[in-house]
Every structure is written in C-alpha cells, then in structure tokens.
Amino acid sequence: AVLKKRLVKLVVNFLFYFRTDEAEPIGALLLEHCRITKEEENVFSISFIEEPERKYCFECASEEQCQEWVEALKRASYEFLRRSLIFYRNEIQKMTGKDPLEQYGISEEARFQLGTQQQ
Amino acid sequence: MKLNERSLAFYATCDSPADNSGFLYKRGERHTAYHRRWFVLKGNMLFYFEERESREPVGVIVLEGCNVELCDSAEGFAFAIRFGGAKSRTYVLAAESQAAMDQAAMESWVKSLSRASFDYMRLVVRELEKQLEEMRWGLAGGCGGSRESPGSWKPKPSGPERSPERLPALPAVPPKENGCAVWNNVLGAEQPPDPSGCGGHGDEGNPRPPPLPPRRRVSNGEAVARGPSTFC
Questions:
Q1: Is A65 a domain residue?
Q2: CA of A65: how far to CAs of A1, A18, A35, A38, in Å?
Q3: In this predicted structure, what is the pLDDT of residue B149?
Q4: Do B198 and A7 make contact, defined as CB atoms within 8 angstroms?
Q5: SS3 A113
Q6: Within a domain: residue A107?
Q7: pTM
Q8: Is residue A1 part of a domain?
Q9: Where is the segment annotated Disordered (chain B) (predicted)?
Q10: Which one of B161, B177, B193 has the shortest CB-CB distance to A75?
C-alpha cells in the first residue's frame, strides 16, 4: 500500500482530507459507528462497523501526534457526544435533584433521552 | 468529494434510534414540484429515502452551519433549511398534508432540526461539564463568600422554549475534546475550514465555542408570523 501525504482535518464528526496544496477536500469520512485502533508505531487506523476488515490507515509524524489523534477521533462522533450529555445530565440531576436541561427548555427533546427514542 | 457512503448508509439504516422521522415533501432543486420522501434525522444528519422501506437513502443533508426557518408558503406548512455559502442550496420541506397534523408535524421538525447540529450538542455538553466541575470543586461564583448550595440553582431567565442564547465564557484552555476546528456558523457545510497544517489539532488558537446559530423560530409550540424578509 502506498502512503500519500494528506492534510487531515477533523471537523465535528467528519474527517476531511485534502491534497496538501488544495483548498477543497478530496474526501471525507463520517465518523459514526467506527473503531479507532492504534496500530504500530506512529500509525492508527479507522474502520467501520459494517466493513470491519477495511482499514483506513494513517501514519503520523510522531507517536505523540498519533496518540493525540486517536484520543480526538475516539471522541469525535455525535453519538459519543450524546452519551456524554446524557451522562452529565444524570450526574448533575443526582447531585442537585434538578434537571440541568430545564433551564434551556430542552429537557423533553427526544435526542437527550435515555433509552428508546421515537421511531 | 469522496465520502464513505456505505458508512453513511449504514448510519441511516441501522437500528440506532432516530431523533425524528416521518414523511415530508421536499421541493425539487429547480423550484419545481414537491416530492414526498421518508426523512430520518439521526444526530446532525438528515437522511431522506424514496420510500419508508427503501434500503438506502437517496440523499443526506448535513445540519451544520444552517438556519431552519418557517416559510410563508401557499402549500401551508413549509420550512426551509438554509445554508450560508454562496453556492449553497436552500432545502424547502413541507409537512404531510393531513389536516390537523400539519402544524404540529412541522413544528416538531423545525424544533428537532434547529437543535440537531453537532455544534449545538457540544455547546450544551461543555456547559454541563462546566457546571459539574464547579459543583465538584465548589468554586465561588462571585467575590469571596460561599457559593449557593447546590440545591438552589440559579434559573436562567424564564421563557418558554429558550435555547441557550448566551452561554457563559468557557475557560481559556478548554480540554481537547476532539481536537476540532472552530466551525464558522456562517459558512455552509460545503466550505472547507481554513487549513491548519497536517494533523490539525487544537482549536486554532481560538478557545471560545462557536456562537449558536441565530434562532428565529417557533417558541412554545406556537407558529410565529414571519415577515416578508423570510420568504423562501
């Protein structure tokens, strides 16, 4: 496999990649239902649940940079963020007896509920 | 631009719960007829299918950097998803024509779409994180003195259905959550962010969270009359 140098940009739950001298991305990966794996030194991979044997590999300039990316990508999905929100909401509710989302008027929003949401 | 379409389709069709779903009429690209499509909102992605039983979506709208507005429409209950870029398309959608269900369905969609962005979610999460931090470390809010007991939460200004219009400033060095760039809400989803060099990490020296998209929408379940400036 050939390694190509790319400018890589994580924006919300997308990983954009560019040829280093171009302004428009050549592609993007939606980072939902994916697995981030630390491979050998300086290398991590992204694979998706519906095609687990296909790995998108990235080689970093250093091990430190590699770790940073792995950490960032593991937290990049919308679903991860949603779980964090629900977690914090519950923690605060446990400590105060109040739902912290009430003050924003969003406590009934389907997306912030635990368990089943509307079909 | 290449996209991992299979993964997108998987996300659209897997059995993780949708944040909203239903039939909507979508106006065609050349301002022509409306087409009935089955819409599924998951996270910040609005997928649409030809039929409810379709295996794959025919399209997706990424809900970042957009405004959701009500439309004055002859058809009745239409709303628009509008992006900021010069070349960006505005998506006009209308709720199913079924007498009394129209308005409720439309409002439910406008609400759920307005809050669908990753940015919005992240803002709320950061605010909750901050509250939790303050509670755990007992930081004093004002000068000296003791903080109010955790039980007496200072309520934000009351009002029906207020979204966080103005959240307090975050600490100067926020934790690197996903190392992502600040998303400029004025730009449409198609515009690439400023390049920041390989392995772009950190917030590009701008620690503040992106401002909330301006919200001009229904409050408390009542339709708000739109002025002529928001004709779509």
A1: yes
A2: 22, 18, 18, 12
A3: 46
A4: yes
A5: coil
A6: no
A7: 0.70
A8: no
A9: 141-232
A10: B177
Whether residues B115 and A106 touch (CB distance < 8 A) is answered with: yes
Residue A63 belongs to what domain range? 7-79
| Confidence bin at B144 (pLDDT 50/70/90) | very low
What is the least distance, in Å, from the CA of A97 to any CA of chain B? 7
Residue of A4, A5, A8, A9 for testing the chain B interface, max B β-carbons within 10 Å: A9
Looking at residue A114, its amino acid is: L
Q: Where are the alpha helices (DSSP H) in chain B?
A: 5-13, 101-114, 118-137
Taking only residues 65 to 84 of chain A, the set having a beta carbon closer than 8 angstroms to any beta carbon of chain B reads 65, 68-69, 71-73, 75-76, 78-79, 81-82, 84
- What percent of chain A lies above the pLDDT cut of 70? 94
For A100-109, letters b (16+ CB in 10 Å) and e give bbebbbbeeb
**What kind of fold does domain B5-119 have according to CATH?**
PH-domain like (2.30.29)
Q: What integer best gives the mean pLDDT of chain B?
A: 68
Q: How far apart are CA B76 and CA B91, in angstroms?
A: 16
CATH of the domain at A42: 2.30.29.30
Residue A97 lies in a domain: no
The string of pLDDT tens digits covering residues A59-72 is 999 999 999 999 99
Residue boundaries of the structural domains of chain B:
5-119
pLDDT (tens digit, 9 = 90+) per residue, B187-211?
A: 333 333 333 333 333 333 434 444 4
A68·B150 Cβ contact <8 A: no
Phi-psi domain of B76 (left: phi exceeds 0; alpha: psi -120 through 50; beta: other): left
Q: What is the ipTM of this complex?
A: 0.89
CA gap B201, A106 in Å, rounded: 31
How many structural domains does chain A have?
A: 1
* Beta-carbon count within 10 A of B81 CB: 23
pLDDT value of position A62: 96
pLDDT for the residue numbered B81: 94
